[in-house]
Structures are given as structure tokens and as C-alpha cells.
Amino acid sequence: MQINITGHHMDVTPAIRAFTEEKFDKLERHFDQITSINVVFGVEKLRQIAEATVYIAKGELHASSESDDLYTAIDTLIDKLDRQLIKHKEKNRSHHD
């Protein structure tokens, strides 16, 4: 799984990059058909924004999150994507039953 991390009007520090990669590795445990992930971090006034597009075998999922703290935004983003992946997995499983 390839993770592309970029910052929009901000620098992505090694600590943020490591935290992000660790969190996205957890997604792969739930769903092993992730091919790549694009993550974009940004700042709008005082809001920290985290957005991600997850490319999977049969499509893509997108989520975004905002918070005063980038780490909180990343955690919320992961939770949203995790729920989407579980829903996608269940939907595919029900088609095969």
C-alpha cells in the first residue's frame, strides 16, 4: 500500500508523517485490498484540515475532517474511512452470498 502525503500551505513534519502512516496501516488490517492512499493536510484560518482518498480494488473512498488540532483531525479522518471500508466490505460480502 502506497501512502502519498502532501501539505497545502503547510509543511508536513516527520512526526505528522509517521503518525499518519501508523494510523493508515491500521486501516489495512481491516481491509487488505487498498492499493494506494492520497492524504492532503491544510490550514484554513485556525482550522486544521485532513483529507484522504483511499483507492481500493473496486473504486475509491473519500473523507475529510477538520479540527483545531491536526492529530485530532487525522484520528477523526481514520475513523470515517474505517467505517466506510467496513460498510464497503459488508456490501461486497452480501453480493457474494
TrEMBL record:
InterPro entries linked: HPF/YfiA_ribosome-assoc, RHF-like, RHF/RaiA
GO cellular component: cytosolic small ribosomal subunit
Protein's GO biological process: negative regulation of translational elongation
Domain of life: Bacteria
Keywords (A to Z) from UniProt: Translation regulation
Entry's Gene Ontology molecular function annotations: ribosomal small subunit binding
Assembly description: Associates exclusively with 100S ribosomes, which are dimers of 70S ribosomes.
Family label: Belongs to the HPF/YfiA ribosome-associated protein family. Short HPF subfamily.
NCBIfam families: yfiA
Protein name per the record: Ribosome hibernation promoting factor
Lineage of the species this protein comes from: Bacteria, Pseudomonadati, Pseudomonadota, Gammaproteobacteria, Legionellales
Gene that encodes the chain: yhbH
